[in-house]
Specification:
Elements: H1 6-17, H2 21-44, H3 54-66, H4 76-99, H5 123-139, H6 141-152, H7 157-164, H8 168-186
Helix pairs in contact: 1-2, 2-3, 3-4, 4-5, 4-6, 5-6, 6-8
Length: 187
Amino acid sequence: MSSPDDSQILSLLQTAQAGDQKAAAELLPLVYAELHQLARAKLARQAPGQTLTPTALVHEAYMRIAGDSDLSWEGRQHFFFAAARAMRDLLVEQARRKAGPKHGGGRRRMELDEACLILEPPSDDVLAVHEALQELEERDPMKAQIVLLRYFTGLTMDETASVLGLPARTLDRHWRYTRAWLMKRLS
């Protein structure tokens, strides 16, 4: 993940957090491409029928984290962790909304032509992963961060290792264990 100078991003994050609208306006273009790439990767893994676009996901996540005055940014990594978490929360909220009775609950939509069956995206999958991730977060926060970066933001193994500051072999070992744990938990 190539990016502008980390110190420039951190400086703008802290200034924007203090309420400087100019700094917030300067920050978004610097991080937008990376955030959009993360959102696009995440949404590409969603089931067909997804109504949320990468642009909308980035904007919603950015509004959540930029407007949170309780956070004090420790660096670029912290900002992108917060963005990944905001994206995850937004996708979970959308899945819950779609599973609600006003949006058809568990019903499936069918075209009049029965040969052309259209199913709503499986919101249960997103919710099940969210619940498993919450449990994993309580047991081992590092492994939960790995899932967050790999599953919800679509980072590669090398990018995840770089963000977490772990050797690639260590990350690979953690990822294999975590995937096995999740498969067992979700089955």
